[in-house]
Write a structure and sequence with these properties.
Blueprint lengths: L2 H6 L3 E3 L2 E3 L3 E3 L15 H12 L4 E8 L17 H5 L2 H9 L4 E6 L15 E2 L23 E2 L2 H20 L5 E5 L5 H6 L14 H4 L1 H14 L5 E6 L14 H13 L4 E5 L15 H8 L4 E5 L5 H10 L3 E4 L1 H5 L3 H6 L20 H7 L3
Parallel strand pairs: 3-4, 3-12, 4-5, 5-8, 6-7, 8-9, 9-10, 10-11, 11-12
Antiparallel strand pairs: 1-2
Helix pairs in contact: 5-8, 9-10
Amino acid sequence: MNHSTSAIHSPYSGNGIAVRNRIAVAPMTRITATESGHPTQTMFDYYKRFAMGGFGLVTTEGIYTDQAFSQGYRFQPGLADDEQAKAWSAFTHDMRKHGTPVFAQLMHAGALSQGNIYRDHTVGPSAIRPTGEQMQFYFGQGRYAEPHAMTDTEIDEAIQGFVSAARRAVNIAGFAGVEIHGANGYLLDQFLTEGTNHRTDRWGGDTKARVQLLVDVATAVKRDIGEAVPVGIRISQGKVNDFHAKWSGGEADAEAIFSTLADAGVNFIHVTEFEAWQPAFEGTHENLVTLARRYAPAVTIIANGGLHTAERIENALMSGADLVTVGRGALANPDLPKLLERHGEPRSFDSSILHPVASIKPEELAMQTVA
């Protein structure tokens, strides 16, 4: 192996994470669960390809956390009750046998919810209608609804939803780790973002105050499940409905966010950008991965964003990442680790493998099955 592939395929062990290589599958929203939030065999077949293809780690799509306001999409899986959790257990066991641990990504959609079987209205930090329109890819239509501003009681219930879902993920479903979704415009990111958080109580104000809900969720989850599995959080600037959003405070915001999360005791921070190698802020040279490493030096840093070639993965590792997650590159190359190990050229992503909604066509799943 050359230098690049040797780094990519080296094992990693730290902060409770132990994986066979540095390439992981990114969480990607899909809508192939049942209407009642139970995982399906279609989902398990989709994930199993990545284990057979040599990926060191898989993180699930966003899983909703409670039977109140967290669900974001129709046919989204949940960990809101024990029956939903039990349906994952045989799958997580099978993935471990293939050498690939699975982390559960826990998600509360907040104001971006566009398909909730439990409630007919949405909530957010403030009564501000989200920009853009609902995503047709996930059965959305028209503009987002204006959310109700959350009460303190509803915030406490949302925190408890994350805690209960994490407990089920570990104790019932058998997941090897928990990723709290604090990115991409969903509830926790709505609290973090000044444009969607106009609160004047303890949950609003400067960046340090707006990151507090993320800290409280992570702290509560860690307190409940202890050191059973690693607990981390996903962070981004861009949103699914505001692709080019940037933190207005630049590096000062990055310092406040990453250092505060590190002080809260998270095991890992999963940093996602559209192009992870690009400068994080206009007029600067350093990317967000480098800033995360600087301000959270003892935390495992996971990088995401267009990193599907050996060169880009290697550069991300050199920039401060410990692991790299791949999204569209994994969809096109469910055997990407094996492909890179034999110096193959990754296949380009072709959106035609998807239905008109976010589900890989069954015939494509069959063709992509990795021996």
